[in-house]
Give the backbone structure.
Amino acid sequence: MQDNEHKRLEEIIDRYDGQDGSLIQLLLDLQSEFNWISKDALKEISEKLKIPRSRIYRIASFYEAISLKPIGKHKISVCMGTACQVRGSQTILDRTESKLKIRQGETTPDMKFTLKRVNCMGCCAIGPVIVVDDDYIGRVTSDRVERILKKYD
Ligand code: FES
């Protein structure tokens, strides 16, 4: 962790010093600042706030919004719910994996993209659906995958 990152980490932790029940908010703030929470950060929170590391880890692992692994600048979620699968989402996922040269759950080495498969996102009518960051993209075909990725490149 670089000096300026470490300073930022300490500032955020200090905001919550002595406040019971604010651990989740602290973790969400760190997630939003660094895009993930490192082992070093977990250790520092534990030491500064005197909270067992196992408890912090348990909470951090529970929340989908918190990542304990570095994630890419853009998060791509391919819906693999039933309605999207019926409309070919497996082909979309395969094409995306092949274009990015990673498997679902992984991040590209240049840290640009993280790819995930997810369950129904509640917009089955426009399936198959992929979500890039906060953009919902419907009626995706495998031919469109490359163009979509280029837009975020
Ligand atoms: S199954 Fe994909 S949005 Fe519902």
